[in-house]
Amino acid sequence: MKTSIATVSISGSFSEKLVAIQQAGFDGIEIFEQDFLASDFSAREVGRMVRDHGLEITLFQPFRDFEGLPEPFRARAFARAQRKFDLMEELGTDLVLFCSSCHPEALGGIDRAAADFHELGEIAKDCGIRVGYEALCWGRHINDHRDAWEIVRRADHPNIGLILDSFHTLGRGVDPQTIRRIPGDKIFFVQLADAPAIDMDLLYWSRHFRNMPGEGDLDVTGFTRAVMATGYDGPLSLEIFNDQFRAGLPRLIARDGHRSLVALMDRVRRAEPAMKVNLPAFPAAEPVEKVEFVEFATSQEDASQLETLLASAGFERAGRHLTKQVALWRQGGVNLLVNSEAEGYAHSAWLSHGTHVSEVALIVPDAAATFQRAVALGGEPHVPPRAPQELDIPGVRGAGSNVLRLLDSQTPLARIWDIDFAVDHPAPQGAGLVGTDHLAQTMAYEDMLSWSLFYTTLFTGQKTPVVDVVDPEGLVRSQAIRAGNLRITLNGAEARGTVAGQFLHDTFGSSVQHIAFTTEDIFATAAEMAARGFPFLRIGANYYDDVEARFGLDPRLTERLRVHNIMYDEDAAGQFMQFYSTALPGGFFLEIVQRAGGYDGYGAPNAPFRIAAQKRAMQPRGMPRT
Ligand SMILES: O=C(O)c1ccc(O)c(O)c1
Ligand SMILES: [Mg+2]
Fold it and tell me: For residue 181, what is the DSSP state?
């Protein structure tokens, strides 16, 4: 299967786009006419540049407002088409997209349009060109691929075929299964785009909010499965109109685009084993079994603040790495590593970001397989130097500034604590923390789609819709991803003044802003931590009045919550309680949670009050803000 991407999908000059598209691994590009017109290269030069990058021009587009016009518009449309056919010859491409007409004078009529396309087919044949017809979902008369197909069928010309675009089909709610009845050889080209579920005008939605397959909420997989069932074997091409992508880094947008296409083709081949999807074999996505450890990069001088916080939360130093300055802190089933090496990756990461989470290690069913999958999806291996007796732990650059390590329980990787560490004592009971509930990662809002794509393509999992969280200084958008027993919350900061925005600024783009641990008895844990001097984030009295009224809580429960600064939430499935530490310099903090029943959220209704409390904790009362 050839992969392709439209030049409109990414930012930069024409030359920058070509480099980014080539490096990401695409086979071809769609030339959007606007991009050609805006460039200063002749058609021949553009054609040569594309080929010099090892790419082919898969499509030239769009030609607008062709079919169903009365004279004199009709003759002009034909003359215009002839001009573009000549241009295409210079570019060196033989396929053009005609989108359904939005012309105010367009008359409609399936047979009128079919006759126009038949006549056009004769001209195209003489020029060695094939014309594909696409139904824009806001087209004046034709806005559904089933009608576009009927026109193509009746045009009955070998040079006239259909172009399908997942956005136009799915955005309008047309059942993609209807594609299965179209002959594959009459589908000349397939464009793919996803989009978030937002109820808005179709044209506006399409031109500003499209995103990569898997980044939105449309069933692009179902659409592509239907396309493949027809026998279509032309390119799969991304056509993404997105305001953020237009402003993004071409290299990263192109990389994500390629990743999304590879993951999509992989989903299709696994769902439709009878179909041939030409894609190199690589292992399937698996769920995560466990977060095995989280590693902090710090320095000898800085480590004590972090260690004081960990000790106050009930962690104890239980061992150390055999060859590196890495301390193992443990409690219940949780392992934390504090790396204060004076050289190497962790040290340079500390120099760049201050004390921060530099690595996260996950137990998966087969670490080597997940690593292979990550690389097949364009992930960057992370291979630090190691001593000969140490384990070779597969690692890839994760989302943001940290490294994702992969462990499993089938291979020697399962014995990491015996092989790479000297463990002095068993994990203490501490304050009753038993596991890691979630990792909260903060990023600039424009990076959020990229990060969720990283997790959802590598592992099997689900993502929740994005919710808005109000910070006194701006909005933060939040989305949760669940991949087996890995829960990640992504917090996209739009404004610098938010708690999330400040964290990004102060840590030069570090990513894990807080870790939430699980307890089975939050009151006992809070009491134990209080005895150890845990720096509780103080929640105001107004919050407790409201929460008691909102949920009809027993006042004695409210009082217990208030005493320990525990926040409360519930839904139809169960209850949730959570409390927080104040933040370390730089902004990192801890959260402790208890889930009851089937509660599956993260206490989102509490987030604005938690954030306001954090703001107060940063600016003690009576201190003027600077
Ligand atoms: O927004 C548009 O006009 C437009 C143009 C060409 C396409 O292929 C498309 O899907 C949309
Ligand atoms: Mg299109």
Answer: G
